[in-house]
Amino acid sequence: MLSLYQFPISHYCEKIRWALDYKKLDYRTVNLLPGFHVSTAKKLAGRSSVPIITHNDRAVRNSSDIITYLDETFPEHPLTPVDVQHRQEALDWEKFADREIGPYTRRVCYHTLLNHPSLVVPFFTVNGPWYGPWLIRAMFPVLRKKMRKLMDINEASAQIAQTHLTQAVDKVYAHLQGNTYFVGEQFSRVDLAVASMLAPLCRPNGYGLDWPQSYPEPLAQFVAGLSEKLAWVNLLYERHRS
Description:
Elements: E1 2-6, H1 11-22, E2 27-31, H2 38-45, E3 52-55, E4 58-61, H3 63-73, H4 84-113, H5 117-125, H6 132-150, H7 155-176, H8 189-202, H9 219-226, H10 231-240
């Protein structure tokens, strides 16, 4: 049995949920509580980060490594292009998404959402342990402080992240002009990766969270400014995720 250890809110975990669903694999999810997940993650994979999958007594971490493992182990409904050139292009763009989009999306979103525990606590605790909402609410001031420190989230870093993320979205938008998919004519791991990394800005159906109708400021204004260039994300979710 495949097991996915994850945070429901995490876009890196959404990347793996989407891959597992796209490949029509049976799996179970184990929803961990932020901060309290460390001992479980380190026991499984030696690091505190998620996602982690376990399969046949093996643990695999890092979202790109997990997708490679899934394609090699379960070749039906492949996500990795067969063509050598397309495969390398897909891997390069996926690396760009993981490094140049994912962290900045997280920083921009959390800079606002961590000031609104009524919104973010349910994201942290959905479908988790029964005591999760009570525990996270009680510990939220400490958790928020640790998250801001760990992920370097403050007013200055959020402004830098907005600039960096805007440039990344511009690059994605320019590449997709005249194209439905990033590489070739088929949906692949790179489309899934880029859309997952941008999904928290777009609040798409299929992600697995009960999104608010709109975000609080200043996140709402930032997202509105990118809405036209992010329309591709919602379209991809409608075609390949919902």
